[in-house]
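Teaching note: in complex prediction, the entire set of molecules is handled at once rather than each chain in isolation. The prompt given to students was simply: 'Predict the structure of this complex.' The entities are:
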Amino acid sequence: MWPIIQIELFKIYKRPRTYIAFGAIAALILVIQMGLKIDGEAYAAFLMKDINDTLTVDGKVLNGYLICYILLQLLLVHVPLLVALIAADMLSGEANLGTLRLLFTTPYSRTQWVLAKFVAASFYTILLLIWLAFLALFLSMWIFGTDDLFLMKSNYVVLIQEQDVFWRYLGAFVFASFSLLTVAALGFLMSSLANNSIGPIVATISAIVFFTILSTLNIPLFNIVKPYLFTTHMNNWKEFFDIQVSDSNDAITGSILNVAKIKNSIIILAIHIALFVGASVWIMKKKDILS
Amino acid sequence: MSVIKVQGLSKNFGAIKAVDQLSFEVEAGQVYGFLGQNGSGKSTTIRMLLSLIHPSEGHIEIFGQSLTANRSAILEQVGAVIERPDLYPYLTAQEHLTLFAKLRKQKITAAKIEATLAQVGLLSRANDKVQTYSLGMKQRLGIGIALLHDPQLIILDEPTNGLDPQGIADIRQLIKSLSKDQGKTVLVSSHLLSEIEQIATHILIIHQGKKMAEGPTSSLLDPNKTIVQIKTLDEADAKQKLMASTYRSNLLERTEGLYLTIPKLEIPALNAFLVASHIDLVSLEAKNSLEDYFLQLTSTF
Amino acid sequence: MKKLSLLVIVTYLMQVAVIAQSNPLIERVTKKLNLVNDYVATGVMKTDVAFIKASLGKVKVYFKKPNLLKVKKEGGISLLPKGGVTVTINSLLNNKQYIAIESGVQIFKGKSLQAIKLIPTDEKLDWVISTLWIDPVDALVYKTFTTTKENGTYEITMEYGQYANYGLPSKLIFGFNTKDYKLPNGITLEFGDEDPAAKRKALKQKKGTIEITYTNYVINQGVSNSMF
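The expected output is the structure of the full assembly:
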């Protein structure tokens, strides 16, 4: 199956649309970094308003690690839209172009083609995430330096020691890859249902927006389905940045508050990926190629 | 040996029967013309032969093997161009051929790719993106992809669509050469009788999903049954005079127009009869379009 | 009548001031503190505030007379009670602008301690009243309770070890009031993933402590002003 994966990767590499997402991420990150570099202290002061009433915070709060967290918080909500741009076009784009029949009249089976296309879409997604990590983490570390991560959550503050931060980002990026692959798989499923490019992209984005609203609304009726929605779990990369405390309220270095929550989220996202890709394969196998 | 053997093939799209109990056989080395009007079921049949569409009924054998059971092995030996030459606009011809070369078990060398580009006349534009190509160039590249792996069976669905006269002549020449010089089996579809007539050794005519005629080109396009349309200033008078003549049995029953079926060689004699009968003749035309041929078929069946 | 009352109070305070100036226990404490011109101490700091999750961190504490104090976490971010520097024993006693009133003896951790209340005489000072619990035997302050104008009350308890001769503690627990902490979900982008237990805990507990356990003092070796 490697030759057809290579072909799919080559096509992604050659397609101009591929680079929109990379460009968009770079532009967004650079603008935010520039803004925080120029006026970051005011932003930090705003965030720390309540804390400053009680405590004096001494040290480089606005360091590369916090900048990366802020960037991920903002971007990991929007990157799925960029992933949808490619993933939701993988099958329907070819159907629209008429090239699907070229592929499906080769000796490779439809299942192989669909899986190869998903592998290629996943590769693109991971590459996008690596690009995001490079700019959001490494570039921020270079521009802003590193220090402890002083994380202001809604109801409490977490202070993670500098040497205890980097591995958490690695974990968060691995987790984020599951989130984005779920989006890619959803886009893929939508793509298998249509013969044009725009429909599945819009449908994928709409589905993400719809389920995100369900996930964030605190209405008892929705709470029943929430645990099973992929959107409920997509943002749980943040769990890597919450820390256990001992009985005497000391944060335990190297610990994660809720490992079970992360595992559960990864399992649910993986099930979604398998279901979406499985359904795509089934649909494409049954489909008459009329385009 | 049958290269293609189709038995009782049907395809329903809801209530519409696109292909209805179609059976035919294509022998090795034949150029098999698949003839039918637009919407007659040609493309649906071809897509079923290439496993793009799942048949509702029937059985397809290619190279003596069931298509369902041996799809991969069969398609290894098949090259196809289906309808429009749809390709990747952001890739060059060279990149297209290089990519599709990877999909074959046999090793396709750079020299073979170059030879294929030369064969379809795209060597000088090999490194230009397809989005800059004319329709004819795209069609030629599509054929190049189909021929790249040296297949035994070549399926071409409307290969001359959108081509200029020179392009049509080139494709015609290529098909003839594939069969004559390389011994390939070619199944070529078209809605133009004149096109098929010039290249096909055998013809199958399909209408509303059903087979209407099949056989060697020479026997199907019978010169003794040429349809002739007569246009006169007074059609009623002309019809009356023909009914009274020996041409009575040659007249076709039509609500509009005056048609006869006569051997091609007798057309000058008919012309002389019309002049001698003082019929004010406007035109006397031998019809050879597919529609005319259907007319001929419906008059003889 | 009002004038008379005021006169009585002023006269009383003047008497108290006289008492303060001659309070031998405070004098002994001050004398001990005066042995130290500067120090650099190393220790471990523990932050215990309901809404903060922080791990133990190594700190360096820099002090220079009269009341320059800086706590620096080694290579990291440190959290200190706001205005806490103004209520350390050095800050309270060094300027001598207070009235000291003895207010009885109390038992604290098995020691019989003399409680002395300090009332500042300089209105510019941030603190309003402070109580010191001093062991008359070794002239060491074991506990202070200070009310400030702007930052609430602070309670400092101290334990002493090998640097007791200089009046320097081996352990210092700094208790202070905390205010509510809350950031809108729209800013933190945390929707529906709140930790209810942490929220309850944060609401219930309004006290915070910072505990520094000193492992070493380098005394009177000079500390640059740039450290502060």
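Point out the following to students. The first strand of chain C starts at residue 38 and ends at 49. Chain C is about 20% helix and 45% strand.
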